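Researcher: Next entry in the queue.
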Amino acid sequence: MARGVLAILGSGETAPGMTKVHRGLLARHEPVRAVNLDSSYGFQLNVPQMSEKLEEYFKVSLQIDLTTLHLANFHQSSELERTLFKQRARQANYVFAGPGSPSYALNQWSPLNLGEDLLHVLDEDGTLCIASAAALTLGAFTAPVYEIYKVGVEPYWLPGLNILANYGLNCVVIPHFDNNEGGNYDTRYCYLGQPRLEGLEQQLPEGVSTLGIDEHTALIFDFANDTLSVEGKSNGYWRQGNESRILENGSTTSIDELRTTKVVPRVVLTSEIDLGLDMDPSELGRVILEGGPSSLSAVAQLVQLAERGGEGFIDPSSLIEGLLAARRSARDAGLYDLADQLRDVLLNARIEVNDAVDGTTWSLH
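Model: Structure for this entry, 365 residues:
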């Protein structure tokens, strides 16, 4: 049976009115392992400041440590960085993503196959809290709002992550449904306006509905109980063909009333490395030395262990030695890019590596 909770916020993810929503979602978990995905705003020049603002909100308003997972550009990231990003997302039980550009987010997340990682969080009874721009990526198709509203291109759809289809909801997601920033011109429906939204809906394949969410409003899908609740300031909407249903604030609806396709149990093929099961440094080292498809995941696990080592989890010395051994093996095998990545990992962890004729030494700084 499906588990987990998906909360889709129409806007205002850090506004005072949404604090109660976050608290209710976070109360499901003890301890809370909360992460923020920065990819949706990775194109901006103030990425660190955006992340700090979100982290401060969770710290001050919710008394929760939010860890930002950084992947601002898929093509400029290394395979190790991508693997770490996916592993850390899967290991969280509260995943937040929000402001930015939906098309930019898709450009980073689709080649990562991040949808499977987000579904894994739900499978493990975790919570996804997806807001604003990131919310548009959850459906079968995604409206590239910036390109349509700011650049003026003809309205079109991009393939979405299609998370909701796994629960029988074949739809697109439109946040900011009641936006009125335009004043004397129509900026409803995430700045698309009525004519462009209706034109986009006409482009959708038969059977694809529209899920709209007003600003400062949360639609909370509880998949274990098969219910959809509406919290916050206003309403949600389910548009199917020529019919539109209002999901009223404060109401709870059976998801089955909206379901348009049969739910087919997913077959998820994962390795123990990908799932983050406990492996000691020597076992991870063996996987790395053997090579193969799991070796990079093992390196990423070793990096995570090394990061936690200074907090009493395990003596970091053996982990650092394991990383150095993996680096030597990579160099011996001619995998110089991987060797450089491992050295960068150590340097970023304030570990100075000194290569000499008689061997390699390290020191903590």
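Model: Confidence is low (pLDDT under 50) at residues 269-273, 309-314.
Researcher: Noted, moving on.
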